[in-house]
C-alpha cells in the first residue's frame, strides 16, 4: 500500500477548511494546518464539523489527539515532512510570493506545491522561486468538499509529472472530483471565464431594464440552463440541440440567431469601479436590488444550498 500523503494546509478560511474536510473524508492523509488567526483551533472546531456532516464518525478533538490533524505554528512548521503543500491564504500576489519563499525553504524538495488562487498565475507567483517546476494552480470551486471541479493550471516551467500527479490525486479520491487541465495561463482559468461571461450579460440585462428584477434572471437560469447544464455542458447539450445532425446542424440552423445575439453582446462591458476606484453607480443600484430581493446569506441559507447541491450532484452521478 502506498504511504498516505502528508498535506500542509496554509490558510484555513472557507477554502482551506473545506479542503481539510475533503482530505479527511476521502484520504488517509495526515494534515498540518497553519493560519495566523489566533482562534484557529476554535474556528476549526466550529466550522469543520459542519463540513464533515452529521454522519461523520470523527470529531475535531479526535483528529487533533490522534495526530491526523496538527495545528502548526508557522508555514515552516506546517511544511515539515509534507508531501503536498496546499496554499489558500489571502488572494494577493505579495502574500503568495512571500509565502512560497518560506514554503520552498522548508518543504521537502520533492513536495508538490498547490495554489488555490482564483486568478494569480503560477508564473507570477513563482517569480522569486529557485525551482519553478513543482508549483501549479489547483483551483477549486467553493466549497471544494462538495463541488467536484478542480482546475489544474500549470505555469510555463511546471513539470508535466506534477500536473499528472495532481490530476490523478483527485481522480482517485473516490469523491467524484473532476480535474480539468488548463493549458494556457488565461485570467479566470475556464470556470470563471464562463461564469463571468454570463454574469456580464446578467448585469447588462438588469441594467438595461430588459427584466424587472434580478430574480427574473435567476428564474431564467434556474428553470432552464441550470438543470440542463448540471447534466450536460454546452457542447454536449447543443450537440443534441441539432437533432440527429449534431452540433453541426444546430450551428447551421441557428447561425442567424446566434450571430445576431453575439454581435449585440460584443459592445464594451461596463466598468465595475469608476476612475477614483469607487464602485460605479450601477453597482450600488444592482447590489441594493439584490439585497432587497434576497437579504444577506445566513448560515442556514448556506447549509440549505449545500444540501441541495449534494442532491443535484447525486442525481447526475450516473450521467456519462
Ligand atoms: N472563496 C472562494 O469562492 C474561492 C474559490 C476558489 C479559490 N479561492 C482562493 O482561495 C484562497 C482563499 O480564499 P478563501 O475564500 O478561503 O479566503 P478566506 O478569507 O476565507 O481565508 C483566507 C485565510 O488565510 C488566512 N491567512 C491570512 N494571512 C495568512 C498567512 N500569512 N499565512 C497563512 N494564512 C493566512 C486568513 O486568516 C484566512 O483564514 C484565495 O487565494 C482565493 O482566491 C477562493
Ligand atoms: C527542481 O526540483 C526537481 C524536484 O522536484 C528536480 O528534479 C529538479 O532537478 C530541480 N531543478 C532545478 C533547476 O534545481
Ligand atoms: C435544420 O434544418 C433542416 C433543413 O434546413 C431541417 O431538416 C432540420 O430539421 C433542422 N433541424 C433543427 C434542429 O432545427
TrEMBL record:
Keywords: Oxidoreductase
Pfam (any one): 3HCDH_N
Domain 3-hydroxyacyl-CoA dehydrogenase NAD binding: 6-185
Start and end residues of each 3-hydroxyacyl-CoA dehydrogenase C-terminal domain: 188-247
InterPro entries cross-referenced by the UniProt entry: 3-OHacyl-CoA_DH_CS, 3-OHacyl-CoA_DH_NAD-bd, 3HC_DH_C, 6-PGluconate_DH-like_C_sf, 6PGD_dom2, NAD(P)-bd_dom_sf
Domain of life the protein comes from: Eukaryota
Nucleus in keyword set: no
Residue ranges of coiled coil: none
UniProt record similarity statement: Belongs to the 3-hydroxyacyl-CoA dehydrogenase family.
Annotated protein name in UniProt: 3-hydroxyacyl-CoA dehydrogenase
Organism name: Sporothrix stenoceras
Amino acid at each position: 500500500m502506498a504511504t498516505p500523503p502528508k498535506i500542509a494546509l496554509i490558510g484555513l478560511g472557507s477554502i482551506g477548511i473545506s479542503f481539510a474536510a475533503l482530505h479527511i473524508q476521502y484520504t488517509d492523509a495526515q494534515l498540518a494546518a497553519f493560519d495566523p488567526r489566533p482562534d484557529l483551533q476554535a474556528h476549526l472546531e466550529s466550522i469543520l464539523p459542519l463540513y464533515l456532516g452529521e454522519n461523520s464518525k470523527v470529531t475535531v478533538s479526535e483528529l487533533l489527539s490522534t495526530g491526523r490533524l496538527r495545528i502548526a505554528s508557522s508555514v515552516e512548521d506546517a511544511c515539515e515532512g509534507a508531501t503536498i503543500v496546499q496554499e489558500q491564504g489571502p488572494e494577493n500576489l505579495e502574500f503568495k510570493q512571500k509565502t512560497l519563499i518560506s514554503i520552498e525553504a522548508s518543504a521537502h524538495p520533492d513536495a508538490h506545491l498547490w495554489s488555490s488562487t482564483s486568478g494569480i498565475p503560477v508564473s507570477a507567483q513563482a517569480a522569486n522561486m529557485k525551482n519553478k517546476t513543482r508549483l501549479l494552480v489547483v483551483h477549486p470551486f467553493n466549497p471544494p468538499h462538495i463541488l467536484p471541479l478542480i482546475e489544474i493550471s500549470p505555469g510555463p516551467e511546471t513539470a508535466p509529472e506534477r500536473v499528472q500527479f495532481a490530476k490523478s490525486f483527485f481522480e482517485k479520491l473516490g469523491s467524484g472530483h473532476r480535474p480539468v487541465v488548463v493549458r494556457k495561463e488565461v485570467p479566470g482559468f475556464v470556470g470563471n471565464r464562463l461564469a463571468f461571461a454570463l454574469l456580464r450579460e446578467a448585469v447588462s440585462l438588469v441594467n438595461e431594464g430588459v427584466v424587472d428584477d434580478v430574480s427574473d434572471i435567476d428564474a431564467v437560469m434556474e428553470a432552464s440552463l441550470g438543470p440542463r447544464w448540471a447534466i450536460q455542458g454546452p457542447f454536449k447539450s447543443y450537440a443534441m440541440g441539432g437533432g440527429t445532425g449534431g452540433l453541426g446542424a444546430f450551428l447551421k440552423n441557428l447561425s442567424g440567431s446566434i450571430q445576431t445575439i453575439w454581435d449585440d453582446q460584443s459592445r464594451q462591458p461596463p466598468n465595475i469601479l469608476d476612475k477614483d476606484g469607487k464602485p460605479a453607480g450601477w453597482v450600488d443600484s444592482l447590489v441594493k436590488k439584490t439585497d432587497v430581493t434576497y437579504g444577506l446569506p445566513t448560515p442556514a441559507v448556506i447549509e440549505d444550498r449545500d444540501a441541495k447541491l449534494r442532491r443535484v450532484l447525486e442525481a447526475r452521478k450516473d450521467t456519462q
